[in-house]
C-alpha cells in the first residue's frame, strides 16, 4: 500500500523540521479556562451572527451564533456558562484589530446539551451527513478554515473521483496532526469513510510525510480492510498544500482559478475527518482542537486539546511558560503562521500551533539587495518568479506583477525562506494582493457612485426639463388665451 | 541642366504636395475618442475639485496633456494609475497622498435638518427631509466633501473609515534594498 | 511602521556574504596556481586590483551618502576585482589593474545602483574596456614559470619595465597571427600545444585562466554547494565544443578541434565563474542554458572569424545584453496553467 | 520683454539645451565629438542652418498649410544644408573631409525640424532668429564640451587641428594637456562617446538639483529679511 | 549567396548603424522605454529603410546622375523619403488596420530618423550596386532592430533597478548604450 | 480669396510644395554654379597635396592631368606621372596592403630608377596605439622605405625583422607592418613590370 505511484513536486524547500520538540508527547487536555473569547469569524466567508444575549446562560455545545449566508459557519459554546459580553476582542490576526467576539464566563460544570448518538452513520443519506457537518460548525482544520459542509456539497454535486486526506503536516514544529493520527487513528478512518461516503468517492488516499513513521503505521493499522490507502510522501515543504498534495498523489493539476472539484478531487485534513466522525457519530459540534505548543522559547513543548476561545496565555502557562524570552510569538507554523503580540488572543478553529521562537530559530537578517540568484524561482512550488514579481511590486507596477502570476501565488513562503538576501518576498506579495483587492473595492464603489451620480444628474435634468416644458405649456396656454381674447375682442369690435 | 534640375524637383514637389493633401483629406481621424475613454475612468462625481467644471472638462484637459494625471483628488492614487496607464505615460505618483479612505459622517446631535447637504451631494449619498436628521449611505459616499462645505452647523465631517479585518492588508515593506 | 513581521518565521542559513565567500573559496586554488606559475608580479596585480576596487567602491558609495560598510562587507566588489585580476595578463602594469577595477565597480556596477542592479558583468566590461583601450598591454603574455624575484616583480608591475626575453604569445593569439601569414593550423600548433600542459595550466595566458583542472574543481564545488547550477557552464562548453568539432571535421587545417578550444583562453574560468554571475544572467534554468549556449557560440565565432583572438569577454557582454529578452520569453510554466499562461482546461475524472 | 529674451537665451543655452535637455540631434553629437575641434565645426554649421531655417520659416509661416508643413520645412532645411555643404566643400575643404556625411545629416537633425515646429512657426522673425541662434550656440557648446572631454581623456590634447577649421591664426588654441599621453582609446571610440554623454548628463542633473536646492533655501531667507 | 549573407551580417553586426555608425540615435534613445514601441519602431524602420534605399538608388541612378544634378541629392532624397513614409502609411492603413495600429504612430517619426537618409547617402558614396544597396539598407535595418530590441530589454530592466537619482533615466541609458557598443566591438574583424 | 481659405485647398498644397521646390532648387542650382569651380579646385589641391608628399623635388607638368591606367589582375591602377622637361622623372600610384583589421591604402612615389621616393598611408583601420604607427603623425616608420628598391635590400630581406627581413615591426603588432611591407614590395614589382608604360617610353606623347 505504501508503494503507490508518486509524482514529482516542483520546487519546495527543506526547512529544519524541529518536530521532535513536541512529537513524542501525548495529547493532553487543557484545564478549563475561566473566560473564553469566541470570535464570530473563525472561518472563510461571512461572520456568524450571534443568537445569544449578554447574561444568557448557555450549555456546552449550544449554538451561540448561526451561519450567515452561503459561505459561513455556525459557532457553539465551548463550555457551559454565562455570556458576559458581546463586544470586541483582539483578533488572532496580524492586524491585532478588535473583532466582534462572544465572551463566555465558564461555570466549570461542563454541562452538555443533549447529543444524538448514531449507531450506523452509513444509514444516513449523504445530504444528511453534510447537513450534520454544517450544523456542527465544522470548518477545515488544515488551515484554510473553509466550511466543510459546503465543500462536501459542492464536491458531491460536481462528482469526486479521489478523496485525499491531508496528513502532510509539512510545517516545521507542528505535530498536532501527527499526534491525532497516532492516537485517534480509528476515529479518523471512520471519519474518512464518512466523508468518502458523503461525496461518493471511489478512491481514498491518505498522504502522510515519511518523517512520521508512527502515524503512518497507526493509520495503516486502522485502515486494514477498508478502501482507505495510506501513502507515504517525501518530506518537503509545502507538501501539505492542497494543490501540491494533489499533484504529488495524482499527477493532476488544479486549473488556475479552479477548485480541486474541477478535476474530481476533494482534499480534507485528517483532523477534519476526526471532527466529522465526532459530529456524526456522537452529535458533538466542533468545540475544541489540537494545538501544538512549541518553539525554542517554550519550556515544555507539547500538544494540547484546547477549547475554542481559550486565551493563548493559558496554553503557554500550561506548557510551563517560557524557557527564555521569545523573540517572536506565532500562531500556526513558522512558514505560514502569523505573528501576534497580545497573548490574550483566543485559540480559534484554525489555530494549529502556538510557537514562541528565538531569534536564532527565526534566522532573519536585514534585507540586502537582490542578486537575482534565482533560488526563489527554484524554490517556488507553483513555478512563479518571485524575484520578477517583487521588482514590479517595488516599482508600484502591480499589473505587471499580476502578469507574472501574482494571483497564482499560494503565499507558502518557500521563496522568502531560501532568499539569501532575506528579502521579505511573501510580505510584498500579500501587500500587493491586498492593495489589488482594495483597488478593486474602490473601483466597484466608484462604478456604483458613478451610476448614482448619473441618475441624479439625469433626474435633475429631467426635473429642469419638465419644469421648462410646464412653463412653456403655461406660456403657450397663456398666449393662446390672450390670442383668443384678442380675437374675441376683435370679433366683438367687428361686431 | 539648370532647367532640368528645377523642373524635375518642382514636379517632385508638386506631386508630393498633392499626395499629402489627399492623404490628409481622406484619412482624417474624427474627434478624439480618448476623451470619452478618459471620462469613463474618472469618478464621475463632477465635484470640480480638479479645477474643471466636472469630469468631462478634466478628461479633455487630460487628453490634451495639459494637466497631470494626479488632478483628481477623489480618484486618488487608483484613478491616477489608471489614467497614466491609459495615456501611456509614467506618472510621478509620489505626490498623491494615498489618501486614507474617508467618508462623510453626520453628528446627529447638531444636525438641524436644513437639507443643504442633501441637495449638494452629487451621488445622492445623503438622505433626509427638512427638519429631520440626515444620514449618509456609506456605500454611496465618495468623500467629495461638498456637504462639509455647505453645512451651517459643521455637523457633517469627513472621517477616516476605520480599518476592519476585511479592509486591512499588509503594508508595503520598506527595507533598505538599494 | 508595522512592528509585526510577515511570515515565514524561519529562514535558511544563507546570506549574500556567504555566497560571495564561497565563490572566492572556489577560486582560490586556481588563483594560487596562477601565483605559483607567474610569481610575484601576479600577486602584485591581484592585490592592486582588490585594493583599487575596495577604495573605489567605498568612495562612490560614500559620495552617494549611503552606508559604506554593508556594501563592502557583501564581498561582491572583492569578487569582481578578483575575477578581473584573474583575467588580466599577469605582468600587466599596475595602472591597468587600477583602471580596470575602478571601471568595474563604478561604471560597471555603482552607477546602476550597486549590487544586483547592473546589467553587464562588471569584471568583463572592465576587461573589454581595457582590451580595446590598451591592446598592447592587454596582449603581452609571458611564458610560465620564469617567476622573477620580488624586487624584479615590483619593477614589472609598478614601473612597466619591458619584459625582455620573457614575452610569449598566448595560444589563441599565436594561432591568429600565424593565420594572417597563411600558416596552417598543424604548423601553428606544433610546439605550442600539448593537452596535458593545457590541462594543468602551464601555459601563457591570463593570471587565473590557465589551470583548467583547478577551475573545473572550483566549479564543481560551487555546483555542489548549490551556488550555481550546471546549466550555463555545460551549455557554454557545448556551445564551443560542438561547432569546433563540426568545423574541425570539415577542415582540420583551419579550424581547431574542441579540445584546443576548451582548454585555451578564458573558457573554463568563463564557463564556471563568469557566465554564472547571477546578476547578469537569466534567471530560469532554461534561460541559463540558452544564455550559456549563446556565450559559447559567440566565443567560438569571435575566436574563429573575428578580429580578436579570444572572445569570452565579448560573448559574455553580448549575452548580458540579451538577458532581459531571454528572461522575457523564457518563463517557467505556472502550476495550473499551460505554457502560454492560460488556465488548464477542466478535465473531469 | 527683456525677460522673454532672457528666457529664450537661457532655454537655448541650458534649460532646454538641444542635447542635454531635449536629447535630440544625438547622432551628430556622438559621431563628430571625438575632438573638440570637430564638435565646434559641426556646431557652427548646425547653428548656421538653425538660424537661417528659423528666420525663413518664421517669415513664411502664414503661407504654410498644416498638411504640407513638414515637407516644406524639410525642403527648406535641406536646401540650407546643401548650401552649407557646398560652401564648406568649396572653402573649408579640410574640415569638410572630417565632418563628411554628417553635414548632410543636418537635414534630419531632429533638432532643427523640432525648432521649426515648436518655435519658428509660432513666433516673430526676431524671436525665431534669437531662438535659433541660442539653440545653435547651446548645441555648439554641448558639442565642444563633449568633444573636449573625450579629446582630453582620449588623446591628452585639446582643440587639436583647430587651424584647419578656423585658420592658422587660431592655431594657438591647440593645446597638449598631457604630454606623452598614452591615450585612452575608449574615449575616442563609440562606447566612450556614449559614456561621456551619460556622465555629462548626470553632471548637469546634479548641477540643476544643486541650483534648485539653493533657490528653495534662498526663498525663505528672502522672506525672513 | 554567401557574399550577400556576409554583407548582411557585416552591416547588421560589425558596422551596426546605431552603435558604430551613429545613425538613428534619437529613436534609439527615445522609443526604447517600452517593448511594444520598440518593436513597432523596428518594424516600421525596417520597412521604410529597405524601400527608401531602393527608391533613392533609382532616383540617383535614373534621374540625378543622367541629368548631372547630384547637388540636388539631399533635397531629392529627403523628399523621396518623406514620400515613401507617407506612402507606406497610406498603404498600411488601407490594407491592414491591425498593423497600422502597431506601426501607425512611428511612421511619421521615421522621416526624421537620420539612419534612412544616412544609409541612402552612404550607398551613393560607396557606389553600391542596386542589389548591394538593397541589402545594405535591409542589413542596417536589421542591425537597428536588433540593438533596439536589446536596448529596450535592458532599459525595461533598468526601470526596475534602483539607479542613483543623478543617473536615473537618460544618463544611465547612455551608459548602457556605451556598454552595449563595447560589447558589439567584439564583432570587429568578422566578415 | 482669403489666405485662410486657400490654405485648405488641395491645389494650393500642391502648388505650395511645388513652389518651394522650385525656389529652392533654383537657389541650389545657382549656388552650385557659384561653388563648383572652388570645389573642384579644392579637391584637386587635396589630391595634389597627397601626391606631392611622396614626390620630393620639382616637376614642371600638371600631375593630375598626366595619368596612365594600368590594367592589373587585381584591378586597375591609376598612376600619375611627374615630369621634368617632358621626361617622366617619377610616378605615383596607390597600393593596397592587408593588415590586422582590413585594407591599408598607401600611395607610393617611385623614381625613374625604381627607387622609392616616399610612401604614405592614406587610410587604414588598424588599432590606434598599436598598428597606427604606420602613420607619419605617429612614427617615422614609413620613412624607412625611402631610397629602397628591389635590389636593396635583397628579395629575401624585403620583410619585417621577425620574418627575417630588415624592416622593424611594432611591439605587439607585427601584422600591420608585414602588410605594408608586402604592399610596397608589390608596388615595386609592379613598377618593374610596367616600367615602359609608366615611364612613357612606348611613344605616346603627353
Ligand atoms: C503552503 C500551504 C501548506 C499547507 N500545509 C498543510 C498541511 O501541512 N496540512 C494540511 O492539512 N493542510 C495544509 N494546507 C492546507 C491545504 O491546502 C488544504 O487547505 C487542506 O488540506 C484542506 O483540508 P481541510 O479543508 O480539511 O482543512 C496547506 C496550505 C498551504 C497553502
Ligand atoms: C574571461 C576571460 C575573457 C577574456 N576575453 C578576452 C578577449 O575578449 N580578448 C582577448 O584577446 N583575450 C581575452 N582573454 C584573455 C584570453 O582568454 C587569453 O589569455 C588569451 O587569448 C590567450 O589564451 P591561450 O593561452 O589559450 O592562447 C580573456 C580571459 C578571460 C579569463
Ligand atoms: C585588440 C587588439 C588589436 C590589435 N591590433 C593590431 C594591429 O593594429 N596591428 C597588428 O599588427 N596586430 C594587432 N593585434 C594583434 C596582436 O597584437 C598581434 O598580432 C600578435 O600579438 C602578434 O604580434 P607579435 O608577433 O608582435 O607578438 C591586435 C590584437 C588585439 C587583441
Ligand atoms: C557565482 C557567482 C559568479 C559571479 N561572477 C561574477 C563575475 O563574473 N563578474 C563580476 O563582476 N562579479 C561576479 N559575481 C559577483 C557579483 O554577482 C557581481 O559583483 C555583481 O554583478 C555586481 O552587481 C559573481 C557572483 C557569484 C555568486
Ligand atoms: S532568492 Fe532573493 S536574492 Fe535570490 S533572486 Fe530571489 S529575491 Fe533575489
Ligand atoms: S510564496 Fe508564492 S511565490 Fe513564494 S514560493 Fe510560495 S507560491 Fe511561490
Ligand atoms: S475632481 Fe475628479 S471627480 Fe471631481 S470633477 Fe474633477 S475629475 Fe470629476
Ligand atoms: S447640512 Fe448639516 S445641518 Fe443641514 S441637514 Fe446636512 S448635516 Fe444637517
Ligand atoms: S540626429 Fe540621428 S536620429 Fe536624431
Question: Can you walk through the features of this model?
Answer:
The complex is a heterohexamer of chains A (495), B (178), C (349), D (225), E (191) and F (206). Chain A is α/β, with parallel strands linked by helices and 495 residues long. Chain A is 37% helix and 17% strand. Chain A is built from 14 helices and 17 strands. Chain A has helices spanning 126-135, 148-158, 176-183, 185-199, 213-222, 242-250, 270-282, 312-318, 359-362, 375-379, 386-394, 398-403, 414-418, 425-494, and strands at residues 28-29, 35-39, 49-50, 57-58, 63-66, 75-76, 81-90, 98-106, 162-167, 203-209, 228-233, 265-269, 288-294, 302-307, 328-331, 338-340, 353-357. In chain A, β5 and β6 form a beta hairpin. In chain A, α1 crosses α4 (185-199) and α4 crosses α7 (270-282). Chain B folds into three domains: 1-29; 33-87, Orthogonal Bundle (3-methyladenine DNA Glycosylase II, Chain A, domain 3), CATH 1.10.15.40; 102-160, Alpha-Beta Plaits, CATH 3.30.70. Chain B contains six helices and four strands. In chain B, the strands form two sheets. In chain B, strands 1-4 form a two-stranded antiparallel ribbon. In chain B, strands 2-3 form a two-stranded antiparallel sheet. The model of chain B has no long low-confidence stretch (mean pLDDT 75). The model of chain E has no long low-confidence stretch (mean pLDDT 86). The longest helix of chain E has 33 residues, at 35-67. Chain E has helices at 2-14, 25-30, 35-67, 73-95, 97-103, 107-111, 114-125, 130-160, 170-184. Chain E is mostly helical and 191 residues long. Chain E has one domain. Chain F is of the alpha+beta class. Helices cover 35% and strands 22% of the residues of chain F. Chain F has a five-stranded antiparallel sheet with strand order 1-2-3-4-5, with helices on one face. Chain F is elongated. The model of chain F has no long low-confidence stretch (mean pLDDT 83). Classes of the chains: A alpha/beta (495), B mainly alpha (178), C mainly alpha (349), D mainly alpha (225), E mainly alpha (191), F alpha+beta (206). Chains A and C meet through α10, α13 and α14 of A and α1 of C. The complex binds flavin mononucleotide (3 copies), riboflavin (RBF), iron/sulfur cluster (SF4) (4 copies) and FE2/S2 (inorganic) cluster (FES).
